[in-house]
Amino acid sequence: MKRIYTPTKKKTVLIIDNDEIVIQLYREKLGQQGLIVEVADSRAGALGILEQMPIELVLQDLLLPATDGLELLGEIRSRSDKLPIIAFANPYLGKVVRAATTAGASKVLSKAKNIPDEVIGLVRELMGMAGAVVDEEGSERHLVGALLAHAPSMLAKLRTGYLVFARDGERDLHSSELQHMFAGLHAFASAAGQLGFARIAQLASALEALLMELRAKPNKITPTVGRTLGQAIDTLAGLVDSEPHSPMDRSEPPKILVVDDETISRETICSALGKANLVAISVDDSLSAERMLKEERFDLIFLDVEMPGRTGLELCASVRENTANKATPAVFVTAHSDFGTQAQSVLSGGNDFIVKPFLLVELAVKALTWLYRKQQPPTAAESVAVRAEVNELRLANEHAVLNS
Hints:
With about 400 residues, the chain is α/β, with parallel strands linked by helices. It contains 15 helices and ten strands.
């Protein structure tokens, strides 16, 4: 049974958003609080409503298409220094969160992290509404079907965008294509978080942030970034298929090991993992890492290729003989982007690689991708295939030298 708060005079909340699932969810939940809800999906619409009627609180998505969310937030704040404004921002974009606070947001939340009941609790607090109201029936349940029905078209758009990404190469990818991919993913990530699909929302939000950074910094588009995007899209599709039928949250946080002899590199990797709320154990030498890997099971390993003494490649080969971490995903972090180094990483038992310097959010996406997919060490057939490609590359290089 629902307990509904009914004030003497109904107050009005303005939602500035374009995600139909999120809008419908908050229409219902705010309505249960006895509040009137107005909706706008653009700057003009929002400012028009603010001019026409008294608004007691604003819920604003900062990432609306064709609208500068921070600029709109500043305009709304300039009209009233007392109006409560709750802004929703991508948690991986720290600069946006800080800018929103500076622009006048009363509170900045994440649709991927903050569940509706938390948001409603904050709404009641900011509006001075006493007492707690609980929706015991779970009004969001009937919206899950709408989210899952939308998933195939969203994934199709992402895959189409990725094919353009892979075909056009690192320099020719158009900003409009990245925006197209982002637009489809943003609403899906928001709705997934609000409806309780924690892993889907976490990966989708990280991928969304990576797309935004690549659009702002096209010089950061590299073949390895393209690889990260493709892997993340495939993993997201797998989560969409499995998440409704499996536990949404881990009972324990994942255990991650970072092995790198350079202090700055270790700190950078750990900082990137922190963006995804992941905490890692870091060590600076292979011998210490090997002892740890023999004693305890990890969910993910990041390895530097070149280290004093035993290299990361040798350590990885040894790990594959260790029963405890024989199938643990191992991602090499290297300054070398040549095919030979990449092939060696696979031949040593590595699952993947990321090239320095990398975007922090790219490594966060990489980590989530490997944590949320079923892992297997490279098969003998895959190793043979890599050897064949290495030989072909060597012969092609020798032929080019002879003809030069």
